[in-house]
Design brief:
Layout lengths: L13 H15 L24 H50 L2 H18 L9 H22 L2 H25 L5 H29 L6 H13 L3
Helix pairs in contact: 2-6, 3-5, 4-5, 4-6, 5-6, 5-7, 6-7
Amino acid sequence: MTARRTKPKERVSDEMAYEVLVEDSGAEESPEAPEFEGKRPPRRPPEPEETGGFLGGFEQIMRILASIGVAGAAIVGVFEYISSNEDVRRERSLAVVRDWQEDKLIDRYTQLQSYVENQLQTSTLPPASLPPEVLARAYRNLGYNWMVDLRADGGADAQAMETHVDRLTLFFAQMEICIAAELCNGDVLNAYFHSEVTTFWQYFEGYAQLRREANYADYGRPVDALVGRFQQMGQP
């Protein structure tokens, strides 16, 4: 049996071998791309869209109207707060008037009025032609002397008169404190008590002086302020 002979391979020429090597090296070694080749520059952030035309003007108007609405609501709230406080002050002032009636302070005042009228009939009165400041001081001194005589008397009636003066002085002092603290309405109380306060203090400011000279340095000071306040406000 004859062995099969293998056909010898054809020899590759030197030129063909060089061409193959060149082709292989070109496929494997490609030139490097530049460092930044293929990279996109960073994108700028989008600009805010400007609202123009009718819609932009409408939005601005709505913002203004909303601001006006907030301010208006605040103003209304302030007025309601003030009105509510004023109503409370009026009610508290009317409560003072009720105390004047229910605590029988008006009865004390009436008894003091009768006492003053009796004293005026037996006292030497200052001339009405005197300047107002001098006339006021003369009546104050007159009341001072009356109270000195009452204390010297020491009787039950005299003690009752002094108690009436103390109680009314305290009541009018509390009234002034209430007005000064803006807890009471001065106009309301002036309308009710202008005559009572000024007349009472015309004669019994002298008693306050007597108490200050004794042991009560600030006795009746708020009533001084109340009389000045009511005189400045005027007779209603």
